[in-house]
Amino acid sequence: MRTFGVEEELLIVDPVTGMPLALADALLAGYEEPATETGLSQELKLEQIETQTRPCHSYAELLQQIRRGRAMADEAARRHGARVAAIATSPLASNTHTTPDPRYAAMLDHFGIIATEQLTCGFHVHTSVESPEEGVVVLDHIRDKLAVLTALSANSPYWRGLPTGFDSYRTQAWNRWPTSGPSSLFGSLTAYRRVVQRLLDTGVVLDEGMIYFDARIARNQPTVEVRVADVCLRAEDAALIAVLVRALVETASLEMLDGVDPTPVPTALLRMAGWRASNSGLRGDLLDFGDFRPQPAADVVWALVDYLSPVLDDQGELALVKAGITGILERGNGALEQRDAAARYSAGHRDGGNPPGSEALAAVVSHAAKVTVRGTATGAFKDPVAFKDPVPLLTRVRRP
């Protein structure tokens, strides 16, 4: 079985007001070990912190790693009177603070308000491939199915203090970057590298790290990196999304061996599918990845499971995935859970002079902070052998 691992971006929040707090530097200052040992690192904004797992072989192993990373980040936050919350955008409006770093400063100068407002938390899944050539084959085969993952993971219904009408508004905010979104068919590694180089030659993006395709070949690891998902509120949902990604990668590789060509879906249609998934999530229709016509979201999700079922069954994960998908469809994704938390608060309280809805949105963040670390044993991050085995973390090398 292919190894897989994830990166999670978590929001650092005030547990009372729900406001994002620019504390990433302070959280990381308590650790003498580098990110390759702790599994924690900075991101674009000081209001967020990233966790990274090691490459894993199973859902259970990955879930344990995700929970351990969340526990470590939350304990570091608690030392400063804060918490972490696995929500993809802040429900409350606030100023953001860019992490002191020459590269990030250049991004802020070059992209202006796009970088200023880019406080979003994504979920990136890395799956091992045998070679970059195989990786490009995978990219071509999975591109038409990724929007389903956006709908399942959608966890950002609020933006700057307002309901957005979207389940994943992070997707909308993220897609303001010039290279974000679905990519065209590449056909070969040579073609992929040519596209990347031509994008760099435009001078619009600063470096290869800003090639923000929905899925890309990782620069520093032998993996395909799928980037369409919101950070998931629940750790078990995050591990489930990763299992689906790994099954997509394996299925794509098997199709290559069987001589099955990727479906030549126009990139414009993929943008429509991503937009629909971002907008309504699981609440209405999604675009079916077979004919790209609207179908009930649950039907499209189960169609993806059916498509992946031979690989999932072979890997002993089909029953696990069916149970996990049933759970998400019955209780809703993170966006619905956030809306429900706001509605429960509003039903029994009034905002008492604060801006309309601010206390309800603070209740959303409080609920999210609790769910983020649910199922995590207290002190698990302190395990002296937890981060000491020789397998490398999924840590990016940042360019100055």
TrEMBL record:
<dbReference type="InterPro" id="IPR011793">
    <property type="entry name" value="YbdK"/>
</dbReference>
<protein>
    <recommendedName>
        <fullName>Putative glutamate--cysteine ligase 2</fullName>
        <ecNumber>6.3.2.2</ecNumber>
    </recommendedName>
</protein>
<comment type="similarity">
    <text>Belongs to the glutamate--cysteine ligase type 2 family. YbdK subfamily.</text>
</comment>
<dbReference type="InterPro" id="IPR006336">
    <property type="entry name" value="GCS2"/>
</dbReference>
<dbReference type="InterPro" id="IPR050141">
    <property type="entry name" value="GCL_type2/YbdK_subfam"/>
</dbReference>
<comment type="function">
    <text>ATP-dependent carboxylate-amine ligase which exhibits weak glutamate--cysteine ligase activity.</text>
</comment>
<keyword id="KW-0067">ATP-binding</keyword>
<dbReference type="GO" id="GO:0016874">
    <property type="term" value="F:ligase activity"/>
</dbReference>
<dbReference type="Pfam" id="PF04107">
    <property type="entry name" value="GCS2"/>
</dbReference>
<dbReference type="InterPro" id="IPR014746">
    <property type="entry name" value="Gln_synth/guanido_kin_cat_dom"/>
</dbReference>
<keyword id="KW-0547">Nucleotide-binding</keyword>
<keyword id="KW-0436">Ligase</keyword>
